[in-house]
TrEMBL record:
Keyword Iron-sulfur listed: no
GO terms, biological process: one-carbon metabolic process
UniProt keyword list: ATP-binding, Ligase, Nucleotide-binding, One-carbon metabolism
EC number: 6.3.4.3
Pfam families from the UniProt entry: FTHFS
Gene name tied to this protein: fhs1_2
UniProt keyword ATP-binding present: yes
GO molecular function list: ATP binding; formate-tetrahydrofolate ligase activity
The protein, known as: Formate--tetrahydrofolate ligase 1
Enzyme class at the top of the EC tree: ligase
């Protein structure tokens, strides 16, 4: 599924990410398209390197399946947004005529 580049640049996988890739291969999910979660400022995983450099390695820290979307997500050193619930918390919040707020916690 994920192979070293023939041009000398490569994706370096953490030990945890390698285990995750092995599990996906065992489950037969290794042929799904891949989406890379990385900084929006660069093709690299380094937010300090902007644009489209041509000679870099990238470190993969996490690999998981996004089953509903039908692809594998490989994640670099970046914080991702959590999934949202089916019912937003705002649906349980209210403010009365006296300004008293309920449902925050």
């Amino acid at each position: 599924m994920l192979k070293k580049s023939t041009e000398g640049r490569q994706a370096n996988f953490t030990t945890a990410a390698k285990k995750q890739v092995k599990k996906l291969e065992e489950m037969g999910l290794d042929k799904l398209p891949i989406c890379i979660a990385k900084t929006q400022f660069s093709f690299t995983d380094d937010k300090n390197i902007v644009g489209a450099p041509t000679d870099f390695d990238i470190e993969i820290q996490d690999v998981r399946v996004s089953a509903g979307a039908g692809f594998i997500v490989v994640q670099t050193n970046i914080m991702v947004m959590p999934g949202l619930p089916k019912v937003p918390a705002a649906n349980k919040m209210d403010i009365d005529n006296d300004g008293v707020i309920t449902g925050l916690f």
